[in-house]
Amino acid sequence: MKLAIASDHAGFELKEKLKAHLASLGHEIQDFGTHSLDSTDYPDYAHPLAGSVEDRKNELGILICGSGNGVCMAANHHSGIRAALAWNEEVAALARQHNNANVLCLPARYVSNEEAFSITEAYLNASFEGGRHERRVEKISQA
């Protein structure tokens, strides 16, 4: 799968570990930064990643910041993006199954590396169920 990944400084170390983990599973990864621990602004990375998913240059995206909230809010400003904050496997899988989330947001300060790996794998292994959820997802973009 072709995946986009990005973080701010708070998520940098987790992003680097998750990127290596996902590559070891055979995924193609496009890294939108940041590339150091230097303080930075999360929208500078969330917006380009969201644009790449919106334009279908990447199938799905993964954003990481301290709480996961900032990157999620920034990504959701894009009309074709349904970014979801997940802190466990069940929430991540449901984001795909029920909400057709195309960007996963992770809270680096609240999950371990191993938890982030399993959360991301649950997200990637899930698929949209459609049915009654389709109608609800369509209503998201009607605002």
Rounded mean pLDDT is 96
Q: Helicity level, as a percent range?
A: 40-55%
CATH class: Alpha Beta
Strand content: 15-25%
Q: What is the count of structural domains?
A: 1
Main sheet strand line-up: 2-1-3-5-4
From the 3D coordinates, which CATH architecture would you assign? 3-Layer(aba) Sandwich
How many DSSP helices? 6
Task: Summarize the biggest pleated sheet.
Answer: 5 strands, parallel
How far apart are the termini?
31 Å
Description:
With 143 residues, the chain is α/β, with parallel strands linked by helices. The chain has one domain: Ribose 5-phosphate Isomerase B, Chain: A (3-Layer(aba) Sandwich). The protein has 6 helices and 5 strands; from the N terminus they run βαβαβαβαβαα. It has a 5-stranded parallel sheet with strand order 2-1-3-5-4, with helices on both faces. Strand 4, helix 4 and strand 5 form a beta-alpha-beta unit. Helix 2 packs across helix 3. The chain is globular and about 45 Å long.
Give the key terms.
143 residues, alpha/beta, Ribose 5-phosphate Isomerase B, Chain: A, 6 helices, 45% helix, globular
SSE layout and pairings?
Blueprint: E1 2-7, H1 12-24, E2 28-31, H2 43-54, E3 60-65, H3 69-75, E4 83-85, H4 89-99, E5 103-107, H5 113-125, H6 132-140
Parallel strand pairs: 1-2, 1-3, 3-5, 4-5
Helix pairs in contact: 2-3, 4-5
